[in-house]
Amino acid sequence: MTNILLTGARGQLGTRVETLATSAGLPVTAVGSDELDITDSHVVDEFVSPGSVLINCAAYTAVDAAETDQEAAKAVNEIGPRNLARACARVGSRLIHVSTDYVFPGDASTPYEVHAATGPATVYGRTKLAGETAVRESGADVAVVRTAWVYSGVGSDFVATMRRLEAEREFVNVVDDQVGSPTYSLDLAGGIVELALRDFTGSSTFHVTNGGQASWYELARAVFEEIGADPARVRPCSSADFVRLAPRPAYSVLSERAWVTAGMTPLRPWREALHAALA
Ligand SMILES: NC(=O)c1ccc[n+]([C@@H]2O[C@H](COP(=O)([O-])OP(=O)(O)OC[C@H]3O[C@@H](n4cnc5c(N)ncnc54)[C@H](OP(=O)(O)O)[C@@H]3O)[C@@H](O)[C@H]2O)c1
């Protein structure tokens, strides 16, 4: 049976991957940052056991903070994945490494295919792209899984924030000039566990998101609809009204073509997934 090693296990995605892999009956060794710092190559080498599938959900994900905290972002998003991949290559384990739509420039008008030209506009995106390169160059069997706009509906993610704001405010302004692929963390985790059970070899890249596309404004309206609130209380605005330290992509929808071509199960449409998340 496939032995799963999981890093970043206390994060949004890692938590769901652990839940699904465990309920699929797989042996899972799941570690958070307090148990395993992926930037420390010595502890990584001790952690990675032969014949396993290592799923790396650890990352520096504070997109704005990364602009002024470049060394920390580089350590977790580039050096850490390199440590993990080299350890996998040494003992013959396989690696699933999670990456992001932010590796692309975000100015497309049709969904990005896996081999589309990259060109990150932020420190976060550049360090994540460097992490992809590092794991591909390690010699390990590696699958890079790029995803986008991940939510669980709890904590401080976008969907949870819209629920909170619905209770606090009469109207909520949300940008409608950024379009992406909203992705329910549990669906993404299911795709990753399915991939872990496949016999992938060499180096592959997949885009794994829920189907379809939406602007943040459309996603916010859908959240209001799901919780029985009037979606007209969500008002469209532009990115210029919400200036952030790190620029956000205008269009970063990811194409599922490579995933489907590989015989993997497509994730359901984003609107269905949102309904399930908020049920
Ligand atoms: N969330 C999104 O919208 C989104 C979109 C596209 C791609 N992704 C990618 O999806 C993956 C999972 O993201 P997420 O949303 O689950 O992020 P998250 O909730 O921020 O989880 C990341 C985890 O990484 C851990 N971590 C940080 N530094 C570490 C280190 N040095 N060693 C070991 N663990 C460390 C963090 O632990 P601490 O909290 O203890 O530091 C945290 O639990 C990442 O690769 C991210 O780039 C996410």
Q: Which distinct ligands sit in these coordinates? A: NADP nicotinamide-adenine-dinucleotide phosphate
Structural class: alpha/beta
> How do the helices and strands follow one another from N- to C-terminus?
EHEHEHHEHEEHEEEHEEHEHH
The number of strands is 12
Structure, explained:
The chain is α/β, with parallel strands linked by helices. The chain has a domain at 3-149 and 182-211 and 252-268: 3-Layer(aba) Sandwich (Rossmann fold), CATH 3.40.50.720. Helix content is 38%, strand content 18%. It has ten helices and twelve strands. A six-stranded parallel beta sheet has the order 2-1-3-4-5-10, with helices on both faces. A two-stranded parallel sheet has the order 6-9. It is globular, with a radius of gyration of 18 Å. The mean pLDDT is 97. Bound molecules: NADP nicotinamide-adenine-dinucleotide phosphate (NAP). Residues 7-8, 10-14, 32-33, 36-39, 57-61, 76, 80, 98, 100, 128, 147-150 line the site of NADP nicotinamide-adenine-dinucleotide phosphate (NAP).
